[in-house]
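Researcher: First entry.
Model:
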Amino acid sequence: MSVQGSSELQKLKEVMDAREELAAAFKSAGVSFPAMDVRLESTYGLIALGEVSPATAREMASVIATGAGL
């Protein structure tokens, strides 16, 4: 395997692991967030959260505000 190929696999693993952590956090907070795509378009990879309904956006805002102590 080439160095670049190894780097790509490492980047993919990192972004997939982060996606799973985020999905688990949303689930434990009671937020249903089905669309989280992984994209390897940048140096670090991206987790695209996609489109959300107003209800999901409000759930996320509530969880974030609670966690931030607001």
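Researcher: Second entry.
Model:
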Amino acid sequence: MNITGPLSGPRWRRRVPLTALGAAVALGAVLTAAAVSSAGTAEAAGTAGDGGSGVAAGAPGATSQVVTWAASADRQVTPTQGRTYRLVVRTSTGGKGLRIRLSNAFGDQPVTFGSAYAGRRAAEGAVVPGTNRALSFGGSPSVTVPAGGSVYSDALPGTVPPQSDLAVSVYVESAGATASGHRMALQTSFVAPAGDHAAQESAAPFTQRITSWFYLDAVVVGARRGTGAVAAFGDSITDGASSTQDTNRRWPDLLAGRLAADRTTRIKGVANEGISGNRVLSDGAGQSALKRLDRDVLSQRGLETVILLEGVNDIKSVPAPTAEQLIAGYREIIGRSHAAGVCVVGATVMPYEGWRDWNADGERVRQAVNTFIRDSGSFDAVADFDAETRDPSAPSRMLPAFDSGDHLHPNDAGMDAMSRIVDPDDLRCDRR
């Protein structure tokens, strides 16, 4: 599809070293079969005949379907019918056969997508000339997704580079009053307010700017066989609140950059499943982590490990749960993930004294929860974000150098520090 030229791949090794990846990946057979499912249920994985593994059959050059970008869907009460969205997203891993997943998880009616295109983003709302290619759904240029459902596109021939900006354009032919999307994208995307302009490379029809993603909740590529992915499952800190807009400085983005450059790891895909304000136990800003785990996390292609950074919004809610109740929620997430063959890295809850909802009772719960995360052995590994970001002279407060100013959300430097303490070896999982 000429989204890019040949993909240059990194080298990596397992615990038993693998043969190095060649300098370029040849174009392979198109992966097929779009899958439509109801929300909360993992979509049928992979090509026909692969047993749902997401691995294209064949010997050398076979690929694994791996999520390269994702964002959690939530309810958006915004008119979308008759508009074309040009959504800017950044890949983590590269590969062949790009596919997108469109979600109507929170829709009140079926939504019909009249057309969808994907290409390399140039600047603003423009697409690199010659790269904007039509996507299909079971061979059709359009698809209707029922309320509560989602759909994967067919695979698009060609290769997509890692760490690159894509422009995914979707024309919403008909929709209800409630859309599905991700509110706090921290990325500017574009809207053509009337008509189908998905095929156009020019930015001219896209006269409106938005900072949310609509309907698109995952992008998948066929990466070198054995490549895996990690999902960052969290709240506003994972969602990137207080990081710099349009710069991809959320800590999962920075982790993706580290993994892309690391020749010793095969974990290359990163899915950001953070929702600002999210809680483990109860709904609020988005469904609770317990409710959305299957749809947002365990359904992702190629997933090996989840990094769980949730809990601060539970702790500072009124009424707040006890440490035991929050720990029970963690145990449920761990158990369900393990049952799906996915490992879980527990991330300690970060300090937030100075934030308006901080109090001594909440601090005691935070300390008890962090003791469980560090010492219980329930998690497969631990990422001690608390120890990394706290002020040694005032451990209930964030280090000033990492504080965005609100005493809860880290700034760009804090996001970078968080990304650097995640050990790539902890992201490999042998549970399957």
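Model: Note on the second entry: The chain is about 20% helix and 30% strand.
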